[in-house]
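Look at a sample.

——
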Amino acid sequence: MRRIGFVAATIGALMLAGCGNSTPPGYPGYVEADYVRVAAPLSGSLARLSVNRGDEIAANAPLFVLESAQEAAARAEAESRARQAEATLADLEKARRPPEIAAVRAQLAQAEAAIKQSENDLTRTQKLVADKFLPMQQLDQATAKRDSDRARIAELRAQLELANLPARTDAISAARAEAKAANDALAQAQWRLDQKTQTAPVAGIVYDTLYRPGEWVAAGSPVVSLLPPGNVKIRFYVPEPALATLRRGAAVSVRCDGCSAPIAARVAFIAPQAEYTPPVIYSRENRSKLVFLVEARPDVPNAALHPGLPVEVSLEGGSAEHK
């Protein structure tokens, strides 16, 4: 409604100016701005608001913090799971602990001593059986004991070799995948925790604060509105006959009440359609009633240009080159 009223007033001013023979000194307009509205992607109550309206802040300055107890707990849990997965992977990638290897070596030494004893017993038993002093059954028992001790040595040597090797390749691959998943979950938990604290993406003025500490903030709802100096623009309306002389990049001069000198600016946008269309058939006589929205941006940020300030814009020498 505000824009419609302003457009209507603009059309009236242009039509009154058209009744005389002199060219109007400029086109009426007003100052507008592109605000940077900072929000958090997660919901929560507003725990701390670090800025006030009108504050001038630098980029990366703290703006606000949402309560984050749940996100902090989730992050701590994810970190514990990641550490456990990393420890499991490290354990599978290395050999057994030295005490375990030493125990296998001791068992192997005992088995080697036992095989010597069983081989000596078998030799003596063979001689006694051949001399008919012992039955054949004794020889069978001595042979079985010797074979059992040999198998025990082979088993312990295999265990010792296995103890010096890491786990199987498939087990290590599974543990590595588990560790990666745990670290990814930790990264997600850290991201959610970080999003509860928001800083200024650009330097500028705090134009407005939309919540107070303790209030619930929905996900994606802006909490602070920033106005960077370079985001100020001038909106004005030109009649249809003057549209042909305008190009993007055309130089304009902006005047306002309280401005010590004209402010240099350049056209940044020209509306492709008329802002106001009277309900009459377009003819050569009434084409001048059509006005088009034009936006210009100051060459240098100027503190005198506040959003909503009425201004008057004059063209500087007609057309300009395309940019």
Summary: The two ends are 33 Å apart (CA to CA). Helices lie at 2-19, 69-93, 98-130, 136-163, 169-195, 240-243. The domain at 74-189 is CATH 1.10.287.470 (Helix Hairpins). The chain has two domains: 2-34+228-315, 74-189.
